[in-house]
Amino acid sequence: MLEIKNLSKKFNIGTENELTVFDGFNLTINKGECTGILGANGCGKSTLFNIISGVLTQDGGEILLNDENINNLKESERSKFIGRVHQNPSMGVSPSLTILENISLSDKKCQKFGLKKLINRNKIDEFKEILKTLDLGLENMLNTEVKFLSGGQRQSLSLLMATIKKPELLLLDEHTAALDPKTSRLIMDKTRELIKSHSLTTMMISHNVRDALNYSDRIIMLDKGHVALDVRSKDINEKELMKIYNSRNYESSLAEAV
Can you give the pTM of this predicted structure? Predict the structure, then answer.
């Protein structure tokens, strides 16, 4: 379970451009559930993810993961138990390394090792079996550099790498936004399989109402750093959700995304 208590965050403090993103923000994410995070650009979604993962430091408040305070942990330390998949398919992988080298890096996350000892040959068969679950034939391309893969293949690999150690929290940051509709659907289906099979506690930022409803257990809508809506996905339909979204003067781009 993730608990965010009395979170505050400002940018450009003391200048004419000072911006308050969060002021006394509270949120609890239930263990083993997928929570869809909706909201217009600038409402605080990515800032929230960056604070949770340790990319940004909050000005005040607490972040607890499974009752442990993680406020003072660096991003590298949090990566032991927090997985993240970014919108850009290349951000979660090392393009110049092979598929085998990438998955080996994820398997040895936060461990000390030399590059010569990166690959554990005894685990190659295990890695192949894991890659087979993607149904993309990547298990037969272990020595292919990731830069030669398609966006969908890279994002699938990134998703697998983020979940291979079964993190306590998985952050999906618009992870299908850069993909075509067919590939996006494939990635979303694989995402659901991994979340369910590993019982992963997941937060998923999306600009697609339909995906948020179909692939999450709960919907959180943010507006100017506050929770504008908190509802079980099964208790609201797409039309109702769009009406709420539009009534709060959100950008029309969300409607176009569905």
Answer: 0.89
